[in-house]
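Methane monooxygenase/ammonia monooxygenase subunit B (Methylomonas methanica), 407 aa
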Amino acid sequence: MKLLKLFVFSSICLSGLFLSTSTAWAHGERSLEPFVRMRTVQWYDVNWSASTVAVNDELTITGKVHVAEDWPNSLPKPEAAYLGVIAPGPVFLRKERWINGEAHLNSLPLKVGRDYEFKMKLKARIPGRYHIHPSFNIIDTGNVAGPGQWVEITGNANAFTNNVETVKGEMINLETYGTANGVRWHMLWMILGIAWLVWWVRRPLFIPRYAMVNKGEEDKLVTPKDKNLAKAILVAVPVIVLSGYFVTNSQYPETIPLQASLDLIPPLPEQADLVNAKIKRATYNIPQRSMMMMVEIKNDSQKTLQIGEFTTGSVRFINSNMNIDASHTPPEYLATNGMQIEPNDLIHPGEAKVVKIMASDAVWEIEHLSSVIGDADSRFGGLLFLFDDQGNRYLSSISASLIPEYK
C-alpha cells in the first residue's frame, strides 16, 4: 500500500512538472539579464512574412535594431556580432541574410548609437509549431534575442529538399551528401578503439594485476606483443590520417576554408538629431507593476510632434490616443494597457516640455524585465518614438537608473 501511494505521489509530481514547463519552454530568452536586453541591441519594426508555412516554403524575417548609446559598462563594446535565428533545433534552414541591403556572411562590428536594418530568408524544414526569434550573438556578451513569433510548419519532413549545384556543375543534396563517407570514418575509428580495449580487457584485470604489482612483477604486465601492437598503432594512425588528407585534397582541390574576416557594413545613414529626450527621474512601482518616467523632450524639428510609443526589451507601450500599426507584433510583446502621458499634448517646434509617462502592465513581470531593479546594473533603456501629423517617425534612445517603489 505504501509503495502504491509513493507511486501515485511520484506520478502527480512528474505530471505537475511537465504541465508547469509546457508553456515556458519557448521563452528561454527571458532568463537573460534585463539590462542586457534593454541596453544593448534594441529591436524594432520586426516582422515575419507568415505565421504558417509548408515544408520547403520560405519565411522572411525583417526588422531594425538600434545599438544603445548607454551600452553597459560591464560588457565589452560590440566589436563582432553575428545575426542569427533562435529556434528549437534545425527546424528552418537559413538561405540568405542581409544587413542594410548588403550580404551578411561573417560577423560584423556594430557602432554604438547607430541603426541597422536586417533581412533573413529561412526555408521550412521540420513540421511543428516553433517560437522563432531573430538574434544577435555578440562577442563576450552572448546571444541577445529579439521578439519571437509562433510559426507553424506543415507538411512532411521527408519532402524537404536542399539541393545545390557545385562549381563543377554537379547537383548534390546537402541533407545526405557525404553521409556515407562520414559513417565509414566513424566506423573505422570505433573498430580500432574497440579492438584496442578488447586487447587489454580479454586478460584478467584488477585483482590478478594488483597481485603481480605486490610481488614486484610489474614488468610482466606489458608483454612484448603489447609493445609491438602499440608501435603498430602509433604508426598506423598517422598514416591513415595523412592518407585520408591527401586523398581528400586530390579529390576536392577547390575548397573554401572557414572564414575569419569581419563584414564591414556601415550603419544606416545617421538621422538629424531633431528630438532630444532626457529622463529626469524614473521609478518602478512593484505592487502596481508600473514604471513612471519624467521625461524632458525638446522638439528641434519644424513639425509638431506627439509621443506615440515607448519600446524596451522588445515590449511595446503604445499611446492609445494615436493610430499606430501593431498588427505585425506578437500579442505577448504588446502592453495591453499601453501607456499614459501627462500632459498628452502636442509638442510644437522649438518647444521643450516635461511630460510624465506611465507604462503599467503585467508584461513587466511576464517578460522578467522588472527584475532589473535587483541587478547590479539597475539602469534600463529603450526607444521613444514621436510622430508628426504626416506620420513621420522620430526616434530617441533613452536610459536612466530605475528606482524601486514598494507601495
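Confidence is low (pLDDT under 50) at residues 3-8, 17-25. Residues 385 and 395 are 5 Å apart (CA to CA). ok done for today
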